[in-house]
C-alpha cells in the first residue's frame, strides 16, 4: 500500500518531498519575515487587483473628462493635482469628481457585498439583486417619494432603511439552526417577489411627477451626485471594508461547509452574522446613493473569480471589479448616449444580463445547473 | 480552565497523573430542537485508542460524534476536553487539539489538492502568520502520509472518490491534532477504498499514536480495526470494550436485532459477524431496524 510505504520511510520521505520542491500552492507565494511573520500572496490575484485598479482609475479620468464640456485626460489629471484653470477646477472638482467617486464607491460596495452574499449562500445566484435587497431599498425610497414626496436626503434614508429591514427579514426568515445556502436564496427570492409587488402598488398610487422621479431612481443613476453623497459612503466603506477583509480567511474556510470550517476553529455563525450585516449595510448604502444599479453585485464577483482563477470569496478582486465595472459602464453610457441621457443602471443591466445568460449556459454545460 | 493555561508539558503531566482520558462526555442529553436522540449518555474515549462507534441507523452515533466535536451543544450534561467544557474553550484552541472529518464537506470549485490540504492549517495561522515554513512542511508530510503527494497540483474535482477521501483526511492531518474524529469515512467508497481508508486510519493510530474515533456502518470493519468499540442503540451504550471481548451473537442481536453467528476472522482472528440465513431468522425483525433509514 502506498501510504504504508511512505510512512515507513518516515523522515526520508519527508526530505525527499521537500527536495523535489512540490509546489503546494499554485501561483501562491509566501512572504516571510525573520520574526516569524508570513503573508500568503496569490500572485495572479495581486496582478488582477492592480490591473482592475488601473482600469477603474483610467475610466474615472475619462469619465471626468466627459460631458457637455469635454476636458482632455491630461487636463483632468492636471486639475486633480491642483494645476488646472478656474473653470476646469469647478467642473472637475465640484461637478464631476464627486459623481465619479460615488460611482467608484457604489461599485466597490456592490462588488464586495455581492461577493459576501455569494460566498455565504455558496451560490452565484445568492447576490443582493436576486435576494431582494435592491427591491427592499427601492420600496423604502418609493415610500418616501410617493407617500411623503420627500427630499432627496429623505429618499436616501428611506432606501437605506428599506434595504436594512429587508436584509434583516431575510436573515430571520432563513434562520433555522444557522443560515444555509439554498434556504437563504429561496427565502430571498420569495421576499423579493413580495417587495416587488409592493413597489408596483406604490407606483400605481403615484402621480405622474412622483412616478417619473421614482422610475429614474429605480433604474440606478449617478446623475447629480455631489460631495454630500460621497462622505457617508466613504466613511461606511472605510469601516466595513477592512472589517470584511480581515474576516476573509474565515469566509474562505466556510466555503467547505459549516462542519469543516467549524472543525477548523471558525466560529461559523458569528462570522456569518457579522459578514451578512456588513454586506447588507454596504449594498443598502450603495443602493441608497445611486439607486438599485442592477447586476454589479451579481457579476463583479463572478468576473473577478474567473480572472483570478482562484477559489475563495475573492473579496478584494470583486471590490475592484465592481468599481471598475460601474465607472466603465457610466463612461460607456455617457459616450454612446450623451451626457446624462441614460442612467448607468441600464448599461450595467444590459451587460449583466448578457453575462448572466453566458454564465447559465456555461454552468449548464459543466453540469452544475 | 486556569490550571490549564500554562504551557503544554504542564497539562501533560497533570493528565498522566490524574489518569483521566482527554475526551469524555458526561451525562449528555442530545437533541435537535425537540427531538431527543440520547439521554444521560456517558462515554469515555480511551487515550491512544482507535475507538469505533457502531449501532443501527438513527441510534445516535453520528449525533454523539457531533457532540464530542462540539458541533452540537448538549442540552444537558457536558463534553470535556482535557478537563475543560469544550464549548467554553477558544474555537481555535479546540481545533488544534481535536480534528473532525465530517460527512458533509464541500470541495470549492477549482481548488487544488495542495490548497485544500493547506486549509487544514487554519487553526495554526493568524492574520500575520498566513503561511509559515512549518505549515509548508506539515502539509507536505500530510500529503505524503496519505499517498497523495503527486496529486498536489491536481484539481480536487478531477479525483476519484477514494482519492478525494484521502485528500480530506490529509487536510484533517494537517491540522495536527492528537485527537481525530471521523464520521463514516468509508461511506460511498468501494470495498478496496474502504479498506484503504481504514488501513490508513490504523496506521495513523499505531504509528503516530493519535487517538481516533470513527463512526462506521460495517460491523466487521469495526471489529477488525477498532481497539475499543462502543455499541449504541436508541441513544444508550449497550456495550463497550475491545471487540474480542464484547462482540457476540447475543450483542449483535440486542444492538441490531439481527440473528447471526460470530466466528473468528480467518485473517486477523478478530470477531466476524455472519448474519443467519433467511430461513434462520424466523423471529420478526423489530422496530429499530424497520424504522431505520
TrEMBL record, chain A:
Family in the record: Belongs to the binding-protein-dependent transport system permease family. FecCD subfamily.
| InterPro entries registered for this protein in UniProt | ABC_BtuC-like, ABC_transptr_permease_BtuC
Source organism of the structure: Streptomyces hyderabadensis
Q: Where in the cell is it found?
A: Cell membrane
* Transmembrane annotation, as ranges: 45-65, 100-118, 130-149, 155-174, 181-203, 230-252, 273-295, 344-361
What is the designated name of this protein? Iron chelate uptake ABC transporter family permease subunit
UniProt keyword list: Cell membrane, Membrane, Transmembrane, Transmembrane helix, Transport
Coiled-coil boundaries: none
Q: Pfam families annotated for this entry? A: FecCD
Question: What membrane topology is annotated for this entry?
Answer: Multi-pass membrane protein
UniProtKB/TrEMBL annotation, chain B:
Indicate yes or no for the key word Transport. yes
Chief localization class?
A: membrane
Region Disordered, residue ranges: 1-21
According to Swiss-Prot or TrEMBL, what is its membrane topology? Peripheral membrane protein
Q: Which SMART domains match?
A: AAA (SM00382)
Q: Where in the cell is it found?
A: Cell membrane
Residue stretches making up the ABC transporter domain: 23-259
Keywords attached to this Swiss-Prot or TrEMBL record, sorted alphabetically, are:
ATP-binding, Cell membrane, Ion transport, Iron, Iron transport, Membrane, Nucleotide-binding, Transport
What segments bear the compositional bias annotation Polar residues? 11-21
The molecular function GO annotations come to: ATP binding
> What protein am I looking at?
ABC transporter ATP-binding protein
Organism whose genome encodes this protein: Streptomyces hyderabadensis
Amino acid at each position: 500500500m502506498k501510504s504504508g510505504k511512505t510512512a515507513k520511510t518516515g523522515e526520508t520521505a519527508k526530505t525527499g518531498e521537500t527536495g523535489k520542491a512540490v509546489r503546494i500552492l499554485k501561483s501562491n507565494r509566501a512572504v516571510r519575515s525573520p520574526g516569524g511573520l508570513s503573508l500568503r500572496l496569490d500572485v495572479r490575484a495581486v496582478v488582477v487587483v492592480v490591473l482592475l485598479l488601473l482600469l477603474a482609475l483610467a475610466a474615472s479620468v475619462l469619465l471626468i473628462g466627459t460631458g457637455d464640456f469635454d476636458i482632455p485626460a491630461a487636463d483632468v489629471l492636471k486639475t486633480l493635482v491642483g494645476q488646472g484653470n478656474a473653470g476646469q477646477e469647478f467642473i472637475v472638482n465640484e461637478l464631476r469628481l464627486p459623481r465619479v467617486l460615488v460611482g467608484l464607491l457604489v461599485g466597490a460596495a456592490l462588488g464586495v457585498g455581492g461577493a459576501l452574499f455569494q460566498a455565504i449562500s455558496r451560490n452565484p445566484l445568492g447576490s443582493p439583486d436576486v435576494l431582494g435587497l435592491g427591491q427592499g431599498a427601492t420600496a423604502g425610497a418609493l415610500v418616501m417619494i410617493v407617500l411623503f414626496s420627500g427630499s432627496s436626503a429623505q429618499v436616501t434614508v428611506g432606501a437605506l432603511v428599506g434595504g436594512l429591514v429587508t436584509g434583516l427579514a431575510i436573515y430571520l426568515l432563513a434562520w433555522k439552526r444557522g443560515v444555509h445556502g439554498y434556504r437563504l436564496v429561496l427565502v430571498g427570492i420569495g421576499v423579493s417577489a413580495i417587495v416587488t409587488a409592493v413597489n408596483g402598488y406604490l407606483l400605481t398610487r403615484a402621480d405622474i411627477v412622483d412616478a417619473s422621479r421614482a422610475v429614474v431612481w429605480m433604474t440606478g443613476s449617478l446623475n447629480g451626485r455631489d460631495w454630500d453623497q460621497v462622505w457617508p459612503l466613504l466613511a461606511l466603506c472605510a469601516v466595513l471594508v477592512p472589517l470584511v477583509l480581515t474576516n476573509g480567511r474565515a469566509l474562505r474556510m466556510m466555503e467547505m461547509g459549516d462542519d469543516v470550517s467549524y472543525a477548523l476553529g471558525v466560529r461559523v455563525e458569528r462570522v456569518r452574522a457579522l459578514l451578512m450585516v456588513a454586506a447588507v449595510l454596504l449594498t443598502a448604502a450603495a443602493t441608497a446613493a445611486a439607486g438599485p444599479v442592477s447586476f454589479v453585485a451579481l457579476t463583479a464577483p463572478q468576473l473577478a473569480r474567473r480572472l483570478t482563477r482562484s477559489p475563495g470569496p475573492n473579496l478584494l478582486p470583486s471590490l475592484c471589479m465592481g468599481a471598475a465595472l460601474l465607472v466603465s459602464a457610466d463612461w460607456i453610457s455617457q459616450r454612446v448616449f450623451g451626457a446624462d441621457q441614460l442612467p448607468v443602471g441600464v448599461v450595467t443591466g444590459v451587460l449583466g444580463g448578457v453575462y448572466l445568460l453566458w454564465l447559465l449556459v456555461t454552468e449548464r454545460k459543466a453540469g452544475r445547473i | 480552565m486556569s490550571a490549564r493555561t500554562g504551557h503544554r508539558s504542564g497539562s501533560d503531566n497533570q493528565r498522566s497523573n490524574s489518569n483521566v482520558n482527554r475526551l469524555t462526555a458526561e451525562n449528555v442529553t442530545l437533541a435537535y430542537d425537540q427531538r431527543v436522540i440520547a439521554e444521560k449518555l456517558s462515554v469515555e474515549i480511551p487515550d491512544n485508542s482507535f475507538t469505533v462507534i457502531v449501532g443501527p441507523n438513527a441510534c445516535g452515533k453520528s449525533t454523539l460524534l457531533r457532540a464530542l466535536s462540539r458541533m452540537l451543544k448538549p442540552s444537558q450534561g457536558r463534553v470535556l476536553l482535557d478537563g475543560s467544557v469544550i464549548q467554553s474553550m477558544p474555537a481555535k484552541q479546540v481545533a488544534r487539539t481535536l480534528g473532525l472529518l465530517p460527512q458533509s464537506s464541500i470541495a470549492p470549485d477549482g481548488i487544488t489538492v495542495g490548497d485544500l490540504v493547506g486549509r487544514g492549517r487554519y487553526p495554526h495561522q493568524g492574520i500575520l502568520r498566513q503561511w509559515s515554513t512549518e505549515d509548508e512542511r506539515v502539509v507536505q508530510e500530510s500529503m505524503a502520509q496519505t499517498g497523495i503527494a503527486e496529486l498536489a497540483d491536481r484539481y480536487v474535482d478531477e479525483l476519484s472518490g477514494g482519492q478525494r477521501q484521502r485528500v480530506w483526511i490529509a487536510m484533517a492531518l494537517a491540522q495536527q491534532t492528537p485527537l481525530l474524529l471521523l464520521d463514516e469515512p468509508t461511506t460511498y467508497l468501494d470495498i478496496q477504498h474502504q479498506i484503504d481508508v481504514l488501513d490508513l486510519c490504523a496506521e495513523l493510530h499505531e504509528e503516530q499514536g493519535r487517538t481516533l474515533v470513527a463512526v462506521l456502518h460495517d460491523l466487521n470493519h469495526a471489529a477488525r480495526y477498532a481497539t475499543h468499540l462502543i455499541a449504541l442503540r436508541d441513544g444508550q451504550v449497550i456495550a463497550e470494550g475491545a471487540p474480542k471481548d464484547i462482540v457476540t451473537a447475543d450483542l449483535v442481536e440486542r444492538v441490531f436485532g439481527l440473528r447471526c453467528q460470530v466466528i473468528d476472522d480467518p485473517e486477523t482472528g478478530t470477531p466476524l459477524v455472519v448474519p443467519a440465513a433467511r430461513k434462520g431468522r424466523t423471529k420478526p425483525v423489530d422496530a429499530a431496524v424497520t424504522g431505520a433509514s
